[in-house]
Design brief:
The structure holds 2 protein chains of 2 kinds.
Chain A lengths: L4 H9 L1 H20 L4 H31 L2
Chain B lengths: L2 H4 L14 E3 L7 E2 H20 L9 H22 L8 H16 L15 H29 L11 H47 L4 H44 L4
Antiparallel strand pairs in B: 1-2
Helix pairs in contact in B: 2-4, 3-4, 3-7, 4-7, 5-6, 5-7, 6-7
Classes of the chains: A mainly alpha, B mainly alpha.
């Protein structure tokens, strides 16, 4: 079997941020369900958290391209 | 595209399918199709918004209702809720422009003859990110002065040995990670979505027309059906990415404007 192991690496790297963003928005949904008036405040926090966590997923995507073109 | 002419083997679509020069061939200054699409989107948006807001009626027509809906979304639920009711009006033009531009260019992936989401070429999200980057730095520097801006990177009340580490992390976040992820998130989503639809359509075409096995031809039909499903999914993603870009811009501006602690 031949190929580039970087593709496997990218697939594994996508697990963490996926779970992380899911946890963030699960907390956001819980918070809004308990207290719908807090929606605006929680929205800011949820999107800030999402931007930070998704950064790792995007770094994974970028490095997948970099590793694919390296020899 | 060489797929339909090769006949024997299937050549999967790749990033090369996104290079579509119209005038100028393969050079660096060629006028490409996404550049033309950007010009078309700007003209379309100008005409649409000018004509809709010319005679505003109390009982709105359908176009006026849609445009007002978009404007309310950006002004109220993005700008006012994130930046705060004191300062948000100054930033609504920027946010509204970003939102409408990204939304229109993303939706060009679904329109019949234009099927190319402009933001799937890296230059366009990069340009928008440069605008946002300059804006939030200049706003922050003006608000807090040069020294105060860098002091605001580190929240107050930290033990003294933690301050250099936090400063380094926050500096990297403000200077490098934020613009990088902002541009790459929009680019990656649009690129991946368009490539996905390309793969399923070209694979469906190859399986249906270039093989002589009934099972494979049936799976070609399935491939086409799946590409239609992915197109619907892409409409959702396109709207969501425009919304997230605008929301994060508002968040970064709110951070630059805030006088906290």
């Amino acid at each position: 079997m031949s190929g580039n192991i970087a593709y496997l690496g990218y697939g594994l790297a996508a697990i963490g941020p996926g779970i992380g963003v899911g946890l963030i928005f699960a907390a956001y949904i819980n918070g809004v369900a308990r207290q719908p008036e807090a929606r605006g405040v929680l929205q800011t926090i949820a999107f800030t958290g999402m931007a930070l966590t998704e950064a790792l997923a995007i770094l994974g995507l970028v490095f997948a391209f970099v590793f694919a073109t390296m020899k | 595209m060489s797929l339909l002419l090769s006949g024997d083997t299937f050549v999967a679509p790749g990033p090369g399918e996104f290079w579509q020069p119209l005038i100028g061939g393969d050079t660096a200054l060629a006028f490409t199709r996404p550049a033309l699409l950007l010009i078309i989107s700007v003209v379309f948006l100008t005409v649409l918004l000018a004509r809709t807001t010319r005679k505003l009626a109390v009982v709105p027509s359908r176009t006026q209702f849609l445009v007002e809906g978009c404007y309310n979304l950006v002004r109220n639920s993005i700008a006012r809720d994130v930046i705060g009711s004191r300062e948000f009006l100054k930033f609504v033009p920027l946010l509204f422009t970003m939102f409408m531009l990204i939304l229109t260019n993303n939706f060009f992936g679904n329109v019949v003859f234009l099927q190319f989401p402009t933001m799937s070429r890296l230059a366009f999200p990069l340009l928008l990110t440069v605008i946002v980057y300059l804006t939030y730095h200049i706003v922050g520097l003006r608000r807090k002065g040069f020294i105060g801006y860098f002091k605001s990177f580190v929240p107050s009340g930290l033990p003294i040995w933690l301050v250099p580490v936090m400063f380094l992390i926050e500096f990297m976040t403000y200077m490098i990670t934020r613009p990088l992820t902002l541009a790459l998130r929009l680019f990656g989503n649009m690129f991946a979505g368009h490539l996905l639809i390309l793969v399923f359509v070209t694979a469906g075409d190859y399986l249906l027309l270039n093989t002589h096995n009934v099972g494979l031809q049936f799976s070609g039909v399935l491939s086409f059906a799946f590409s239609i499903l992915m197109s619907f999914f892409e409409i959702l993603i396109q709207f969501l990415q425009a919304y997230i870009f605008t929301m994060l811009t508002a968040l970064y501006l709110a951070g630059a404007v805030a006088d906290e602690h």
